[in-house]
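Entry for succinic acid complex. Fields follow.
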Amino acid sequence: MTVGPIKFKRTNGGVGAFVRNVDLSQSLTQEHVSAIKSALGEHGVLFFRNQMISPEDHQAFAENLGSIDVNRFFKPVEGFPKIAEVRKEPEQRSAIGEDWHTDHSYDQIPALGSILMARELPRHGGDTLFSNMYAAYDALSDGLKEVLQTLQAEHSSRHRFGRQSKANNSSDTGGRLGNPDLAVQDAVHPVVITHPISGKKALYVNRTFTLGFVGWSQAESKALLDFLYDHASQPEFTYRFEWEEGSVALWDNRATWHKALNDYHGERRLMHRITLSGEALSA
Ligand code: SIN
């Protein structure tokens, strides 16, 4: 059992905090769970080191935080249907999640976040970048904030995982199940959300799944979305997490984006991911 208070130390970058004094292979008290949830709402992503946890421990930690949202498109870990593999083999060129995104924004009830655990790492590379959507929103002008607060955006899984997608029309499918007929999710969410834990405003559009603004043409949407994507991926909002054996990252999709760096061709990288169920988002 973890003894004493859990400690959180901000990273030196624009997002995230390291968590100290916790052992995820042991059961957590309600106090610890509350501290982790509230720190997640504040920092957007929490990093844990030296956690030698089994898939059972990983799942128990997730179930302490909430219910599990099983991903439709990734292969499950053998014997653990609720844990998805994020796998890239030495002969593959593409990797899961290599563009900036927030998971499951195409769902009407988007996932809260994910708990990613390193299982097999390349000798060099394979870091994950995170970006802070509170800070990205806060740094915009009052004029643009006012406009964005009136907008809704459409998100979809079809163009990324469906029949017409690049992922489906390539032999290099990574760890995906290759089930394009399940890619039928579309959702509309506010462009600026109020975060369900922290109550702070966050920008909620992403390069991978957002199609455009409701009532705007594609060209109009593209111009403003491209500006927002460039703005929100500036280095001052980001942190680059270097994985080690025993590293775990827990992120909140409503407060952050993430991007897996695909810079380790010829080597295997294998991660285990559990996605947590979220709630409907409001402005
Ligand atoms: C993901 O997008 O969930 C995967 C992130 C990673 O593999 O670093």
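NOTE: The chain has a mean pLDDT of 92.
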